[in-house]
Amino acid sequence: MDQFSRVLLLIIIGVSLQAQSDAPQKFVTEHQDHFGRYTAIGEETMMLDKEGNPEAIIWSLSYLRKEGEQSTGRPVLFIFNGGPGSASVWLHMGLFGPQLAQVASAANEDDGAAPFVMIDNPYSLLDLVDLVFIDPVGTGYSRVVNKGKESNYWGLNEDAESIATFIRMWISKNQRWNAPKFIAGESFGTTRAAGVARALHQRGKDMALNGLVLISQALDYTGSTPEPDNLIAFLTYLPTMAATAWYHKKAGRDHALADFVEEARNFTYDEYAPALLRGNTLTADAKDHIAQRLAYFTGLDKAYILRADLRVTATRFRKELLRKEGLTIGGLDSRYTMEEYDQTAATPTHSDAASAAISSAYTAALHTHFANNLGIAMELPYLTSNGSIYPKWNWRPVSPEQSWEPAYVNVAPQLSWAMRANQQLEVMVANGYYDLVTPFFDAEYTFQRHGILPDRVEMQYYEGGHMMYTQHDELKQLSADIRSFLTRCLAQ
Length: 492
Prior knowledge:
- The structure is a single chain.
- This protein is α/β, with parallel strands linked by helices.
- The protein has two domains: 7-221 and 358-490, Rossmann fold; 225-354, no CATH class.
- It is 33% helix and 18% strand.
- It contains 13 helices and 15 strands.
- The strands form three sheets. Strands 1, 2, 3, 4, 5, 8, 9, 10, 11, 14 and 15 form an eleven-stranded mixed beta sheet that branches.
C-alpha cells in the first residue's frame, strides 16, 4: 500500500473466532489516508427471531473517520448492491471504498487475468460521511444460522425489514440516532432502498433519512422488463437504444449524444407511444413512417423493424445491432461487445459482455483488500453473488394472508410515502446512457408519476452503463455529484 493507506494496527476480536462458528466475529484495523485516520470494522451482526434466538447473520464493513472521542454526530452512509443476490462488492470496490479495483475505461478491453491493479480511491467521501457496506442474508458472509429460514429474508418485504432492522441495530450500537443518515443503493439495491426508507418509519421505531442515492434505479419494473407483451418497455428502452446506436456509429453521428437522445425522447412521447397504442388500427402509411423513424434512431434495418411489428425488445436489439460484425452488445453496458458462438440466435446466448469484462478484477480486489489490508480471515466463502436466491425470492408485496394478483414490482409509491412522511428526504438518481438493464428513460417515466415529489429529486446522467463508475471520467463525475448532493442535504 502507498503512504496514505498504511495499516497502523491490526486487532482481531472474536469469541473463540473460527473455533466457535456461531459466535459473531469482528475484525478491526486502523488506517490513514490523505484525509487522516480512520477505522475499518468488518463484523457479523446477529439477527434474532421472536424468541430472541439467532437465526441469521448479516456481515457489514464499516469505515469510520477518527475525530477525537466525539464521533456520535458524524453522518453515515449505508451502502448495498442489488440482485437480489448480490453482495456489496461492486459499490465497495468500484465507487465508495477507500481502495478500488482499477478496470479499463475502454469498452473494448477486458479485465483479463491476475494480477489486477488496485488503487487508493482519489474521490473518497470518508472526510464527509462514514461508510457502512451491507451484505444482505445469502450474500457475502451473511447467512441463516441455527433454525433460521431463508424465507424470512428472501423476499421483497422481508429483505427491506431485515435491512431496516440491521440499520437500527448499527445506529444504536454506534450511538448515531441524532446523526444524519443516508442510503446508497444500486439496481435492485434501489428497490431495497425505497422499501427500507419506508420501513424505518414503522414498527414504533421511527427513523428519518436525510437522503437516498439511487444508482441505476429500479423502482417500477414496468419500464425495465423488456417482454413482448409489455408495451411500456418498448417506450422506455428506445432512447437507450438510440444512445447505443450512436455509440456504435450506427445512428445519429451528426448529432451530439445528448441532442440525439433528446430527439429520441421527443419521438417516443409524440409519435411512438401513440402509434403503439393504436396497434393494428395504425394505417400502412403511418406504420411505414414509424418504422423508418425507428430505423433512424436504432440503426436497425427498416425491414427487420416491420417484421417485428414496430416492437423490438432490448434483448433482440442487443443481438441484432452488430449482427453483421458478429458481435453481441452488453446489457449492463451496451458499449461492450462479445463474439458469441451462436451467430444465428435471436437473443444473447452467453454471459453479459459488460459483466464478463470486470467481474474477475472486482472479486480479486475485494479478497485482496480483505486479507492484506483489513486482516479479515473467515473460513466461509465470500459470495459476491448467489444464484440460488433469485428463484426462491418472494416478490409478493403483501402478506400471505392477503390476496394479490401478480403484477410488475413497484416500490415507487413507498418512496413517495417516505418523502411525504419526511419532508427533508432528498433523492439523487444516477443514470447511465448505455444501461440496457435499467434504462434512463424508465427513471424519468417512474419519477414523473407515483406521487413522487419532483422538487426533491435530482437526476444525473453519465456516459456509462449500469455501473457507470467503471469509466474513469464518470467515476470522477459521479463521486463529485454524490459529494455535492450529500453536502447540500447536510446544509439543510
